[in-house]
């Protein structure tokens, strides 16, 4: 009989210890409450005014697809012949993986089709107007005879400017419908 009493006492003690170790309603509620976070303002670097709110996690990467553009025959060495696609905003990103693909319009073409990303800052624009592409990033694909599709290697490049103007050149004899992808990372 005393065995049952001891077992009951041990069981009661284990139950009491278990209940003490389990978080109570207040502890569970505290885990789901908001936390106070202090934001230090460094106005010389990044001025913060008003409330600070983060709606979702800050992305670590972003894929940008520039519009398909026809690259007409134009040599790599003559910026006056290049076709401008638009501007790639790279502010906040440190690297990019560039991918170029295209559809050759016609047969028998050989050559190279490429995209040049030229920094969109005044001195570089002035040099480009004089025929020199300073600090240009490049991705290119070989156009082989009889090819319908072309694709580039995918170089990873380090970004040094917040915006780049994108230009196409095409040393083949045929037009190529080109699309450039930039996978931006930090």
Structural description of this entry:
The protein folds into two domains: 2-31, no CATH class; 61-185, Galactose-binding domain-like (Jelly Rolls, Sandwich), CATH 2.60.120.260. The protein has three helices and ten strands. It has helices at residues 2-21, 25-31, 122-129; strands at residues 61-65, 69-71, 83-89, 95-105, 111-119, 137-143, 149-151, 156-158, 163-170, 175-185. Strands 1, 2, 4, 7, 8 and 10 form a six-stranded antiparallel beta sheet that branches. The protein has a four-stranded antiparallel beta sheet with strand order 3-9-5-6, with no helix packed on it. The longest helix has 20 residues, at 2-21.
> Approximately what portion of the residues adopt beta-strand conformation?
35-45%
Helix content: 10-25%
Q: Total number of β-strand segments?
A: 10
Structural class: alpha+beta
CATH class of the largest domain: Mainly Beta
Q: Characterize the largest beta sheet: strand count, sense, and whether it forms a barrel.
A: 6 strands, antiparallel
Whole-number average pLDDT? 86
Order of helices and strands: HHEEEEEHEEEEE
CATH homologous superfamily placement of the largest domain? Galactose-binding domain-like
Number of helices: 3
* Fold-level CATH name of the largest domain: Jelly Rolls
Radius of gyration: 30 Å
